[in-house]
């Protein structure tokens, strides 16, 4: 498998905060926001490439979440919350 295979939409439990970091979001633990996203099946090579893109484990780190599609990796922002605005909807694509 060279491409990501879309498995479906998924919304987390409302236990996070999504921060608006400008051009991209940062999700941290704690809060009352459910994060809206998608689950894909990927291979280990694509996961390594995503880790590089997300600067994992320096800027982001991964946790495993249980979804209806099986366990999925989820990136969390490593920095503490500063003065960034929260995205109350938890939906980065429809935040504005």
Verbal overview:
The strands form three sheets. A three-stranded antiparallel beta sheet has the order 3-2-7, with no helix packed on it. The protein is 10% helix and 43% strand. The longest helix is centred in the middle third of the chain and has 10 residues. The relative contact order is 0.28. The model has no long low-confidence stretch (mean pLDDT 95). It has 96 residues and is mostly beta strands. A hairpin with a 2-residue loop joins strand 5 and strand 6. It has a single domain, classed as Gamma-glutamyl cyclotransferase-like (Hypothetical upf0131 protein ytfp), CATH 3.10.490.10. The chain is built from one helix and seven strands; from the N terminus they run ββββαβββ.
N-to-C span? 35 Å
Global morphology: globular
| Residue share in helix | 10-25%
CATH domain fold name: Hypothetical upf0131 protein ytfp
CATH class: Alpha Beta
Number of helices: 1
- Which runs of at least 5 residues are low in confidence (pLDDT < 50)? none
Structural class: mainly beta
CATH H level, superfamily name: Gamma-glutamyl cyclotransferase-like
Oligomer description: single chain
Biggest sheet descriptor: 3 strands, antiparallel
Domain unit count = 1
Order of helices and strands: EEEEHEEE
In what range is the share of β-strand residues? 35-45%
Radius of gyration: 13 Å
CATH hierarchy: architecture: Roll
Question: Strands across the major sheet, in which order?
Answer: 3-2-7
Mean pLDDT: 95
Number of strands: 7
């Amino acid at each position: 498998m060279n491409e990501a295979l879309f498995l479906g939409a998924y919304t987390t439990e409302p236990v996070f905060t999504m921060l608006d970091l400008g051009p991209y979001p940062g999700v941290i633990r704690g809060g009352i926001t459910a994060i809206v996203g998608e689950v894909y099946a990927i291979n280990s090579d694509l996961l390594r490439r995503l880790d590089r893109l997300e600067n994992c484990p320096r800027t982001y780190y991964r946790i495993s979440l249980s979804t209806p599609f099986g366990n999925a990796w989820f990136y969390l922002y490593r920095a503490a919350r500063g003065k960034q605005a929260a995205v109350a909807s938890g939906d980065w694509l429809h935040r504005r």
